[in-house]
Design brief:
310 residues; alpha+beta; Uridine Diphospho-n-acetylenolpyruvylglucosamine Reductase, domain 3; 3 domains; five-stranded antiparallel beta sheet; 11 helices; 15 strands; 29% helix; globular; binds flavin-adenine dinucleotide
Length: 310
């Protein structure tokens, strides 16, 4: 039986003091980045990951930077605790606050990063659905010619390629996560906006059986922009395009939201596993999507989005 207190295999540990050095180390073969370690260390103890080299990012101060002025700029090593304590995140990006706040316990969030949450690519991860409905992007870096850092940006919703898999190429790492200011809740340019995240888990500290995030932009009572994302109900977190099509351009009210949420079954591909059954996931997703949309609607109107009896 695996002893979960011990990492059995030998590996080289690096703690680079500059991003350049970290990216150079990443050009080696069989290298894993270590951020908060809340996924990677567990996998190494459980012997499902056996990197020959581990590159710890915790000495890179520039990756710990976090800004909530004019959108969110979240360094790859900013802890979830730093993000969830931001008053701007709590007020203007409530779906992200709710998603992060639902991750594990406080000790986990003190260590865990959003970049690690994305790169680990669990279909059940809580960060991605919230980031997807906010239209977030990741900035990716790699070691380029003459020591330059080559960078590219990609939408969070395009980064996942399968359970535990991303489109990141060998040598690439996530540097920052960027959330546009246009996704902030509130009133601007004659439009109102709101967002929310809902999760169903066996117990508070567990990962999701199913989750849903929603973002709404409304003008004169009509839904101009809607993004809905689902977690733990397909091999990757995904946008619920059928639900979105049912609401876009429509008058927004409790009835149109309920009707749209019923369509979530057409967007998802849940399985039965240790956490839940396909049937339950299909049922509960209708409720989660409905509640996320209703809370986003309430918040857009200036309410708290606290759960009412629907
Ligand atoms: C008790 C417990 C409860 C948990 N509950 C939840 C939960 O409710 N919801 C949830 O979503 N998750 C949960 N998790 C999983 C975990 O905490 C999160 O996925 C966390 O965000 C991972 O971040 P990290 O910084 O610890 O990543 P690490 O473990 O350091 O890394 C994870 C993976 O990402 C890679 N990586 C890290 N940083 C980068 C980067 N900058 N660029 C490219 N690749 C990178 C690593 O190489 C590794 O493969 C839980 C974990 C534990 C132990």
């Amino acid at each position: 039986m695996t002893n979960t207190r011990i990492i059995h295999h030998n590996f080289a540990y690096h703690g680079p003091a500059s991003l350049d050095e970290a990216l150079k180390l990443l050009t080696g073969s069989d290298v894993s980045l270590l951020a908060g370690g809340t996924d990677l260390i567990n996998k190494m103890k459980l012997e499902t990951a056996h990197p020959r080299e581990v590159v710890y990012l915790g000495r890179l101060e520039e990756l710990k930077e976090f800004s909530d002025r004019d959108g969110l700029d979240i360094g790859a090593m900013a802890s979830m605790t730093v993000i969830e304590r931001s008053k701007v995140v709590q007020a203007a990006y409530p779906c992200l606050y709710e998603a992060i706040h639902s991750v594990g316990g406080q000790q986990i969030r003190n260590m865990a990063t959003l970049a690690g949450n994305i790169a680990n690519a669990s279909p059940a991860a809580d960060g991605p659905p919230a980031l997807m409905v906010l239209g977030a992007q990741v900035e990716i870096g790699r070691h380029g010619p003459e020591g330059r850092v080559e960078m590219r940006k990609i939408a969070v919703e395009d980064i996942f390629s399968g359970p535990g898999k991303t489109i990141l190429e060998p040598g690439e790492m996530i540097l920052r996560i960027l959330v546009p200011a246009e996704s902030a809740a509130g009133r601007a340019d004659g439009r109102i906006r709101g967002s929310a995240f809902e999760k169903n888990a066996r117990v508070k500290l567990d990962v999701a059986k199913a989750s849903a995030a929603a973002f709404l932009e409304i003008r004169d009572g009509v839904c101009e922009l809607v993004r809905v994302a689902a977690g733990s109900v397909a091999p990757v977190p995904l946008r619920a395009k059928t639900v979105e099509s049912a609401l876009k351009g429509e008058e927004i009210n409790i009835d149109s939201i309920k009707a749209a949420a019923e369509k979530i079954s057409e967007d998802i591909r849940p399985i039965s596993d240790v956490r839940s059954t396909e049937k339950y996931r299909r049922q509960v997703m209708k409720v989660l999507v409905r509640d996320a949309l209703l809370s986003a609607f309430e918040r857009a109107k200036g309410g708290s989005g606290e759960k009412a009896a629907h």
